[in-house]
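step: validate -> pass
step: tokenize input -> pass
step: predict -> running
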Amino acid sequence: MSNKVKKNALRAGTVTAGTALMTLLSSPAFALVRDDGDDPGSGLSVAQTLGLYVGLPVLLFLVISGLVVAGEKTGKKDN
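step: predict -> pass
step: emit ->
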């Protein structure tokens, strides 16, 4: 292997190891103790979660797409 390939492999390994370490350190498993003033609310149901994180973005996409299409149709002029 050339020196440049070894250097790039070492750099890639270092970045991967650093990223994995930061991910492990920030995982919720280390958040076992509640902080002062921490008062979590009740959890969301499955339907609420799907509506919030799937349904709402899809609805917003469809509304924005519809507005773009409507703007294109009204802005066209026949020559």
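step: describe -> DSSP finds two helices and no strands in the chain.
step: cleanup -> pass
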